[in-house]
Design a protein that fits this description.
Layout: E1 11-15, E2 19-24, E3 27-36, H1 43-57
Antiparallel strand pairs: 1-2, 2-3
């Protein structure tokens, strides 16, 4: 099994009409995960939560929208 590559840069969230992408901050084309928006699923909350946890571990603000 190949080891995962660690990401040492902050993450942010990019949203469009259909999905929320967790991306490497400053590079919207370099996305890690896509959460599809649905009436019964808060894609934005999941995306911001994922980015926030990662950024906290880097010593950044928990909310990537800051």
């Amino acid at each position: 099994m190949k080891a995962a590559t660690a990401i040492h840069r902050p993450l942010s969230v990019v949203e469009d009409e259909q999905r929320c992408l967790v991306v490497v901050d400053g590079d919207a084309e370099d996305w890690l995960v896509s959460f599809t928006k649905a009436d019964d699923f808060d894609a934005a909350a999941w995306a911001h939560g994922m980015a926030g946890v990662h950024n906290q571990r880097l010593g950044r603000p928990a909310d990537p929208r800051r």
